[in-house]
Amino acid sequence: MFYFKLAWGNLRKNKTVYLPFLASMTYLVIMNLLMQVMVNNPGMRSMPSAMTVHSMFSFGNVVIIIFSIIFSFYTNSFLIKRRQKELGLYNILGMDKKSLSFMLAIESLLSLIAVLLVGLISGSIIAKFLFLVLKKMTGFGEDFVFHLSLSMFVVVTVFFVVLFLLLLITNILQLMKTNPIELMKKGEAGEKEPKSHWFLTLIGLISLGSGYYISLTLESPIAALSVFFVAIILVIIGTYLLMITASVTILKFLRNKETLYYRPKPFINISGMIYRMKQNGAGLASICILSTMVLVTVASTAGLYYGKEDIVKQRNTSDVSFNTQLVNDQVQPQLNQLAKEHQLKVDDSLKVDTPNINLVQQKGTRFQVFNGNDQTQNGLVALKIWTEDDYFQMTGKKANLSENQILFYPITGEYSGKTISFGDETYSIKKQIESLKLQPKINDIYNSYILFVKNAESVEKIYSALETTGAQEPLAYSTEVMMNVSGSQKNQKEFTDGVFSYQEQLNQELSQQELPSPSMPYARASEIERDRQEANQFTGGFLFIGVVFGISFTVAAALIIYYKQVSEGYSDANRFEIMQKVGLSHREVKQTIKSQILMVFILPILLAVIHLTIALPIIRKLLILFGLTNNQLITIVTVIVVAIFTLCYLFFYWQTSKVYYRIVKRN
User: Fold this and answer.
1) Are 246 and 204 in contact (CB under 8 A)?
2) Is the CB of residue 517 less than 8 Å from the CB of residue 325?
3) Is 602:654 a contact under the CB 8 Å cutoff?
4) Edge-to-edge order in the sheet of strand 477-486
5) DSSP string for 139-188
6) What separation in angstroms does the CA of 9 have from each of 3, 13, 15, 110, 187?
7) Cα of 603 vs its chain's centroid, Å
8) Collapsed DSSP state (helix, strand, coil) of residue 461
9) Which of 453, 443, 334, 352 is nearest to 402 (CA)?
């Protein structure tokens, strides 16, 4: 009972440092319970994009677990540092280390019980609210219902029991390795004045510059995907090294400026920051990296969510598209019949038989087969070759092409040449088309061109010429049908179901037929409303995960700022007390504190915004892989996210400066 009262009293007396720790652990319980609800929801399996969404939430669950472990140890290190003087005093007064360990175990048990009780109860309520928010954002179906099971509570409880046990073992091991005098002094020990490391500063500059260079010079979205994490690691290394080493070098340079240094405010600020800059630098770099992660995560996921309509329209140039691997003249009549049965008006309809030419490589005006060995993938073009009969079907106009003439239509990209060559065959561009019905211009990963030639013999001639530039499959034609329809939403939904039923019917009928691409289905349908629903689910789930990550990282940054201010406040209290005794006024103390905190904490957010600005080109290229090419939207969303986060950050600064001042001011 004695140890229980002692442990309870310790928790109450140290509430300044314990409450933020307990609050952060409670928050982690809520986040982990929320992810359990999302990942283990039975309705997840019934959604059209079930596997993708489930994988996304499973990934989010893993990230939250890893984040919980790292952040728990980080906050615990601040907590135990503030307790070391107290533990040393208990040891001197007669409590051996075994008794102290038992007392710490009771404190951990009480903390664990409080965290789990508050976290699981409040987590259940908050998870229900956030679940409804997610359902509204994504449009998940009625099968996706809120589900809390005993197993979810058990998983979260076991995880935090193990986590608290690991924290307790860490604290006990640290206690066992030190003697009472060291414990008494360790809580107040500051960092020794660090040396200027020009070599590490140079490494930091090279790392940061390399990360920036990768982001600013990459052209291919595919390449961006492969080197994105390399750039992240380089920027993290550069940020930590520059915060720790370059900051010391600058401060020492300022200290050597006698006219600047030997004045009250600069003297206190510069000397104090140099004294513990190694610790400050690591903490500030952590705040900067977390802030950058918040900005990048929320800006990119929000950009995807608010640009989902652009994504859908880019993927669907018509309301309905239907592709078959072989020529099938029955597809268009069947789709027209389905539209008629569901009382829909066919506004536009196009059927073309297209050769199986897909990706080619452009080198100037010459086009050749892409062999897949070019890792840069520069100059790739998605190529369609249609006839002048197809052009007449689309426009009602005659092309009147000769054997070596083509009409050129760039769906994506631009082409300034007057001729196009395939092997030994060269074709002159009679006209470059500005727009085509059912084939609007879009932005994509690759350039995409449509060539209209005289007839099928011209297509075969181009294909034979391409064969001389690399290995190709034998020439085969497929059927592509595009259609725009109008009518009631109910009828359109029934029509869509009919289209996909027809797709399944064709695939079952022809499953045994020898196809040009055996691994692909014979028929593939795409419908804009169904794609819009799936895009809403995908981007909404992504934004939800991004917001959860963003809030988690923001809370982490806020608590690091808080612990940093509390820790430094106690370390600086005696120093400011002495300075006030020799004549420094309350007003001068407050002004000095404000300027010091402002200098220290504006730096990470400024650097985070710079990181984000430099990262925007590579973020835009990665978002192209998801189909988002609206750079203006991405910029607007990014600016709004930066503004909101900056306001939150300044609020943290304002609150922590008050905490710091309360600690260091003279009563």
Assistant:
1) yes
2) yes
3) no
4) 345-355, 477-486, 320-324, 523-527
5) T--TT------HHHHHHHHHHHHHHHHHHHHHHHHHHHTS-HHHHHHHTT
6) 10, 6, 10, 12, 20
7) 23
8) helix
9) 453
Note whether 23 and 72 are within 8 A (CB). Answer: no
| CA 39-45-48 angle, 5° bins | 115
DSSP category for residue 423: T
- Count the residues in the chain: 667
Dist. CA 563–CA 551, nearest whole Å: 18
Structural contact between residues 473 and 356, judged by C-beta atoms closer than 8 angstroms: yes
- In angstroms, the CA 172 to CA 589 distance is 38
Provide the pLDDT for residue 254.
66
> Any alpha helices (H) in 187-344, and if so which ranges?
198-217, 221-241, 247-255, 258-261, 264-275, 277-306, 308-315, 331-341
Q: Name the residue among 243, 299, 294 with its Cα closest to residue 557.
A: 294
CA 567 to centroid of chain Cα atoms: 32
Name the token pair of 633.
């939207």
Closest to 385 in 3D by CA, of 413, 418, 408, 362: 408
pLDDT tens-digit map of 37-90: 777 766 656 555 556 666 667 777 787 888 788 778 877 877 777 766 666 666
Cβ neighbors of 342 (< 8 A, separation 6 or more) are 487, 491, 492, 494, 495, 498
Cβ density class 449-483: b for 16+ within 10 Å, e for less: bbbbbbeeebbebbbebbbebeeeeebebbbbbbb
pLDDT number for residue 542? 77
DSSP-derived secondary structure for 251-284:
HHHHHT-HHHHSSHHHHHHHHHHHHTHHHHHHHH
Regions of the chain with pLDDT less than 70: 1-4, 6-7, 10, 41-56, 83-94, 138-145, 177-197, 222-223, 225, 246-250, 252-280, 371-378, 470-472, 519, 567-568, 570-600, 664-667
Among the listed residues 489, 562, 561, 482, the one whose alpha carbon sits nearest the alpha carbon of residue 524: 482
How many whole angstroms from its chain centre is CA 472? Answer: 39
Task: Identify the sign of the CA torsion 243, 245, 250, 254.
Answer: positive
Using CA atoms, how far apart are residues 262 and 202, in angstroms rounded to an integer? 30
Q: Per-residue pLDDT tens for 578-608? A: 666 666 666 666 666 666 666 667 888 888 9
Which pLDDT belongs to residue 179? 63
Structure tokens at 416: 């300034």
User: Token match 């990470």: residue?
Assistant: 604
To the nearest 10 degrees (0 to 180), the angle between helices 528-581 and 586-625 is 160
Give, for 108, the enclosing helix (H) or strand (E).
Answer: helix 97-138
Question: Among candidates 396, 389, 368, which has minimal Cα distance to 380?
Answer: 368
Question: β-strands 320-324, 523-527: how paired?
Answer: antiparallel
